[in-house]
């Protein structure tokens, strides 16, 4: 489909050609299974409770025998019960000390893991910052316009070439096509963005810009939908490339392959 437009109000016109290219869907990775929490202190705690219960039980028995006053046998049993209770109490103290040591080791391990994670986060943050600087430098130094929009058509990112060639030096972030472009181009650009978001497929648009006193200029604009985790389009990535030399070469080749006139017509 071709439409004649005046993109910047200089008396020229634009020829629009739409080409649709499918975009391969992205696959989502299944989430990792959630591990069940473990209880590393279950056995020592059960042992501590059991030993403490036995120590208390034998201590109560020794007290009962002491108050019963059943003679010499009662005194001997009282001493035996008291000694057994003391042994269980010492075992309980040993188990408690073991649990305390395990807790201290576990705290130390968690502290070490926290320090390692903090270091990894700092390294990752530095790497992300370096990658961002490299990517930003790469995008900003591209000789052709590149931009990123959200679903509402607002510009999120645009490089220097876009600002100079398409936005007349204005800062495009947060603005829409209606704020930056000629009104005759806005509807066409918005329709291409909506088609990319709705179909999930790339949209290609060839424009021929004819201005008075200037040579015709062909520009190819490509838009690609960006998909989120739910496979829904969340924005549009676009760029524009000057294809005037390519179009001129096609015209020259077409002129060279014209059929010569019949001899009778000469």
Examine the secondary-structure arrangement and name the CATH architecture of the largest domain. 2-Layer Sandwich
The top-level CATH class of the largest domain is Alpha Beta
CATH fold-type name of the largest domain? Beta-Lactamase
Strand content: 15-25%
What portion of residues is helical? Answer: 40-55%
Largest sheet: 6 strands, antiparallel
Structure annotation, total helices: 6
Query: End-to-end distance, in Å?
Result: 38 Å
The strand line-up of the biggest sheet is 1-4-5-6-2-3
Structural summary, described in words:
- Keywords: Membrane, Transmembrane, Transmembrane helix.
- InterPro entries: PAS, PAS-like_dom_sf, PAS_4.
- It holds the Pfam family PAS_4.
- This is GGDEF domain protein / EAL domain protein.
- This protein is an alpha+beta fold and 266 residues long.
- The chain has 2 domains: 123 residues, Beta-Lactamase, CATH 3.30.450.20; 96 residues.
- The N terminus is likely disordered.
């Amino acid at each position: 489909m071709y439409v004649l437009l005046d993109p910047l109000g200089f008396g020229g016109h634009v020829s629009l050609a739409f080409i649709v290219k499918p975009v391969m869907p992205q696959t989502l990775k299944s989430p990792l299974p959630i591990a069940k929490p473990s209880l590393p202190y279950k056995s020592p705690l059960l042992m501590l409770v059991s030993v403490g219960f036995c120590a208390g039980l034998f201590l109560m028995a020794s007290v009962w025998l002491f108050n019963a006053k059943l003679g010499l046998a009662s005194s001997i049993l009282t001493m035996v019960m008291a000694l057994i209770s003391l042994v269980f109490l010492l075992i309980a103290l040993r188990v408690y000390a073991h649990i305390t040591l395990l807790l201290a080791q576990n705290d130390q391990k968690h502290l070490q893991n926290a320090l390692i994670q903090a270091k990894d986060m700092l390294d990752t943050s530095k790497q992300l910052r370096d990658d961002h600087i490299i990517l930003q430098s790469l995008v900003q130094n591209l000789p052709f316009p590149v931009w990123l929009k959200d679903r509402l058509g607002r510009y999120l990112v645009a490089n220097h070439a876009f600002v100079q060639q398409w936005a007349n030096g204005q800062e495009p972030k947060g603005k829409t096509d209606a704020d930056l472009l000629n009104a005759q181009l806005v509807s066409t650009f918005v329709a291409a963005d909506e088609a990319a978001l709705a179909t999930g497929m790339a949209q290609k648009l060839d424009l021929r810009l004819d201005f008075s006193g200037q040579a015709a200029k062909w520009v190819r604009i490509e838009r690609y939908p960006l998909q989120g985790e739910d496979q829904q389009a969340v924005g549009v990535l676009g760029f524009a490339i000057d294809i005037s030399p390519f179009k001129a070469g096609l015209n020259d080749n077409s002129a060279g392959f014209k059929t010569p006139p019949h001899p009778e017509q000469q």
